[in-house]
Amino acid sequence: MGLINHGGLPKVVTKAGRYPGFPLRNWWARTWCGTTGLSDTVIEFQGLTVVQVSQNQAAVVSDPQNHIFVIKNSGFVAFAIEGTYDVLSVVDMTHLPTLVKEQSTGVTLGWTHEVTMKSKMGSTTKEYVMATFLNIPANNCAIVQRGDDLLLLGAGQLVITNPNVTLRGIYTLGESQIEMPTKDIFTRDQVPVSLRIYLKWQLTEPLRLATHGYATPYDALRDKTQSILTQIVSHLDYSAMIKQRSLGPDNMEDGTDMSSAFLDALRTRAMDDMHEAALEYGIVLKDLAVIDRQFKGEIAHTMDKLTTRALQAQIEAANVDRENSNKVKQEQGALSVARIKVQASNTQADSEAYRVIAAAKAEAERTRIAAEAQAEATRLAANAEADAIMTKAQADSQVVDMFAREMQLRRVEVAKVKAYGSKTIFVPSDGPGAQMGNAMAVGLAAGMGADSRR
């Protein structure tokens, strides 16, 4: 898009092409001022103002009467005959530069950005806020004041241009917690003590808190907590406070012990008073605990010495217990090793005995099988021999020829001589020869018996 100054008035060339310099009347009182992009966000030329913003962008514009208006996700074109339309700023509403945090808890409340305009008064120039942009995340809210009324704004992207509307604060509606030290409080016997307490709360009615003029819930709870704790501690003795260190769900007692007066007083009075006081500011107190207390002065010095001695004694006792425990564990380990060795020896002896028994059983079984086999073989051989003799006898009995029988006897004689030798003398078992042999044997035996008696 081309820009031409025609006698102080803006001319715009929107068609691309070549524009000749002749005749000169075409350029009489006209000055070529350059080109600009059609998609530029802001174009300002000789009173002509063009603004076009995309999604999540916003343009803050001041008209010739110093009225402020905001253009979001659109655009406009204006020509001012008197004065100008000034584009003060183009803001990315999703990425505002100023981060707002709660100083006490560090919780992110949102993001803000202020658009200013310069105004000259005499020789000095100052900047004044024309618009305030807010980006409030979920579960948070903002409080604005319009006249004498307070308005609650929810989460989202907001912009304030009305000079009658003032931002009072941004608050979180989620749970918050903090550890808070208190100022020195004197007990009934004038012993100074400083407490460190734990607070947990949730803001449910931000308008009530803003009505009382507190910027954060912590500011309201801090003053009220200090006041209530001062009233309670000032009625307690040092001896009652020294016996208890903290207040929490794990050490709440039934109140029968006289040494729990400090905790009972905090539990019954501080919680009730704090809860009731917090409701006045639109705050729900969910937890209160004293996590530490510190005595000051000579009492504190003496108590530190006693505490140090007690801790040293506890450390020494713990070291002795640890050494004893280590020795016991070593002895137990040695006993376990010895027991394992004995079990291993028993197992080895059992396996050796089982091996010997198994070998003996195997040998006995082998001998039995061999004896049975040999007996069976002998029986079979005897049966075979008996069968052979019987068969041979049957065959011999069937021979009826006398000559054949005689020849068989001769063959037996030949076999006997062949078996025992040619010099063997065969004595018949029956007849006179046999009787003579028996008599000689009896006489020889009698003679041998007489010699043995001598």
TrEMBL record:
Pfam families: Band_7 (PF01145). It comes from the Eukaryota. Residues 136-319 form the Band domain. Coiled coil: none annotated. InterPro entries: Band7/mec-2_domain (IPR050710), Band_7 (IPR001107), Band_7/SPFH_dom_sf (IPR036013). This is Band 7 domain-containing protein. It comes from Agaricus bisporus var. burnettii.
